[in-house]
Amino acid sequence: MNEAAAPRHALVSLSDEVIRLNGRLRSLFADARRPDGLGDSEVTVLNAVVEAERAPTVPQIGRSLGQPRQIVQRAANSLVEAGLIETRPNPDHKRAVLLRATAEGIARKRALDARADALAEAVAGPMDDAQVRQAAAALRLIRKDLEARLRQYERARETEGA
Description:
By secondary structure, this protein is mainly alpha-helical. The protein has 2 domains: 32-123, Orthogonal Bundle (Arc Repressor Mutant, subunit A), CATH 1.10.10; 126-162. Helices cover 69% and strands 9% of the residues. The protein has 6 helices and 2 strands. It has helices at residues 10-33, 40-51, 58-65, 69-81, 103-124, 129-161; strands at 85-90, 93-101. β1 (85-90) and β2 (93-101) form a beta hairpin. α1 packs across α5, α2 packs across α4 and α3 crosses α4 (69-81). It is flat, with a radius of gyration of 18 Å. Residues 31-132 form the HTH marR-type domain.
């Protein structure tokens, strides 16, 4: 029986919708990834490295994506082996190296982007482009705000536990 759900916190409802949307989008753009032979995690890490303002570390990518460091590390190792990213020493940390895209990695990412753009164009049809861009901008703001709040929350928990 499908009864009306009890009122939920807006963040929980947003999470449910984003999870469902993520599944649809991953399915849609799987064809864009296929020619490169890259899996979801490799594409995600390559995107994080290529699009980063500064060279990220594996732990930074993991925190940003909400993924365990080990999963991100496996994807990064695969991308290093494929010559799509490289590691550089991190002056701020002895073990957490910086990840940088190689010229091949950037080229592959841009080719993937072009295929994804073509798929989006074919599927989006009459969707309102401005509305989609506005939704993406709103999600970006929510994500950044949530990331800052999570850092504060985690620091407070560490202080309480100390």
